[in-house]
Please model this.
Amino acid sequence: MNNDNDNIEQLFKKHENDFDIENPGLNHTERFLNKLNKQSELQLVKVDKQRRRLWKPLIGVAASVILIITLFIGSQQDSGYRELASVSPKMAETEDFFTLTITEELSKIENEKAPEVQKLIKDTMVHMRTLEENYNSLKKDLTESGDDSRVIYAMISNFQNRIDLLQSTLTQIENIKQLNDLPNKISNTTI
Model:
């Protein structure tokens, strides 16, 4: 190993005058330091951007967790009240039937886009909200009364009232459409 070191030292001594024959230009040190500073600033910006990239997914995950917790807590508060379905399997079937029928009727009403029926639809939705609030109150009463048949009957009546309201609204919408089409039919038959 000493032999290798001696060879390297001899090589440097032999070419000693061949190295570093030019002096750096004016302001060389200053330019060099400026380049170093710029490079370190770029690296800091890159590190900062990488940190931001890491936070974006974490913020999304945190928001999702908060949303899930909120929904869970909200469902726990609502679950304090009994549904009609909790009374018996027959009542569960009844509630499912009414819920399905109400959903179907609501979707039919929501598909109506004619401007002349929008006020009627809006009024119907106000009545529906009132009936739903009454139903929520009945759920509380069912919980407190312990399967009182009067409360169960009132809950079934509430479902039926909502269905009747929606069906009546659909009938009125059809009547309005027919009345609006009547002038067109009359003008087509007179031609």
Summary: The chain is about 80% helix and 0% strand. The chain has two domains: 35-79, 83-190.
